[in-house]
Amino acid sequence: MNAVALRAHVESVLAKRCPAPFAPLRPKLNEKISIGMAELDRLTAGGVPQGELSEICGPASSGRTSLLLALMAEVTSRGELCALVDVNDSLAPDFAAQAGVHLESLLWVRCGGKKAGGELRRVEQGMKAVDLLLESGGFALVIFDLADVSPEAARRIPLASWFRFRKAVEHKSTAFVVIENEPHARSCAALVLSLNKNGEQWAKLGGEGYSAGTLLREVSCSAAVARGKPVGNACSANFQLAGRWAI
Fold first, then answer.
1. pTM exceeding the 0.90 threshold for the entire prediction
2. Residue 179 near residue 68 (C-beta atoms within 8 A)
3. What stretch of H or E contains 32?
4. Is the pLDDT of residue 209 over 90?
5. What are the start-end ranges of the H helices in 113-158?
């Protein structure tokens, strides 16, 4: 399906759910979307910037998915539209709804997951979807989820594509965020937030006469601004996630 046919199909599907989903938003220069976590909003001087490309990077269990859900919840809770390009079909809608995401304001672009062909093919499909969504200008937030894509496949994305994405979102009221294991956009990214897991706390379950067990209560993570302008001299911050959100 070419870009014109794909756009027509998406518009027809969204016609009833999202009035005029591809109507360009008014430019909102120098504004940011809150990450939804006070420590990270302070670190980034308000969150991820609109009209720019941002990267949130980190290994599994570093909080990257929690930040993705927090951003989507922030945007959809105020009635604005969000688009998620999910290369490996990693989103769990029920889990997202529990995290505060209003699913009726979310466009979930699924690339078929691991059963839909090779990884490089899925990444290419995701890039085509990102091109279309950024050019539309009708979404407050567009997320490209590469978190479960191998670094080798992500490195195959040409630098010219990152420049194209940056140009497409420039001067628009759309924040473009890439979730990944490590940064790949290089100088095209206005903000790079690097995440790491510091440790976790476990609680013992059961008592006398019961089977012993443990429950993950909290994960301690840290975030560092690898590119961008942090507040003052602070380049990093610590934050905690409740066990069920520690992903």
1. no
2. yes
3. strand 32-33
4. no
5. 119-136, 151-155
